[in-house]
Design a protein that fits this description.
Elements: H1 20-30, E1 34-39, E2 42-48, H2 49-55, H3 68-71, E3 78-80, H4 85-95, E4 99-103, E5 109-114, H5 115-125, H6 127-130, H7 136-171
Parallel strand pairs: 3-4
Antiparallel strand pairs: 1-2, 4-5
Keywords: CBS domain
Pfam family, one: CBS
Organism: Methylophilus luteus
């Protein structure tokens, strides 16, 4: 199955000259972990909450002092919309990613695909998995729910550790 059939095509992106504060606000408001960066519709990289926290907030720096371009990852992994979901799974597994940006052959952002999108599409194409009597659907939802809880817990713990380190940095006399 092609990625274009499964991906989310309505994606919010940012431009490299925007402030990190603006990027953080967009990501927080929309509950994003990462956001694509585009220049004239062309995908040029990504910015993540982890980038912002570990490289700016942790050191007590001001978000307004930096642009997205200062912190973005310009060599981000991506997929073409005419590749298969099986290739997407392979790339996600190989790079330990839960989502990838999708571009057309002109390198213009076309969408985003997540592991959840792929799992749900595989479930939808397998008659055994769409059987109402099957417990697979319930199991799939449980796996996705647990996966989200783990991700949220990891993020929460990471933020607490970073906050604690930042307090120690600011309270240490020079």
């Amino acid at each position: 199955m092609l990625i274009s059939k499964v991906m989310t095509s309505k994606v919010i992106s940012a431009s490299p000259e925007q402030s990190l504060r603006r990027a953080a606000q967009i990501m927080e408001r929309n509950d994003f972990d990462c956001m694509p960066i585009c220049l004239n519709k062309r995908f040029i990289g990504t910015i993540t909450i982890r980038d912002i926290v570990s490289k700016v907030v942790e050191f007590g720096l001001a978000l307004d002092e930096f642009t997205i371009e200062d912190l973005m990852t310009p060599d981000s992994k991506f997929l073409f919309e005419d590749q298969t979901i099986y290739y997407a799974l392979s790339l996600m597994n190989e790079n330990q990613l839960c989502s990838l940006m999708v571009v057309n052959r002109d390198n213009e952002l076309a969408g985003i695909i997540t592991l959840e999108d792929i799992m749900l599409s595989i479930k939808g194409t397998n008659p055994e998995l769409t059987n109402k009597d099957s417990n697979i659907e319930v199991d799939l939802k449980k796996v996705l729910k647990v996966s989200r809880k783990i991700k949220n817990l990891e993020t929460s713990l990471e933020f607490r550790q970073i906050k604690s380190r930042a307090k120690n940095v600011h309270s240490t006399p020079y």
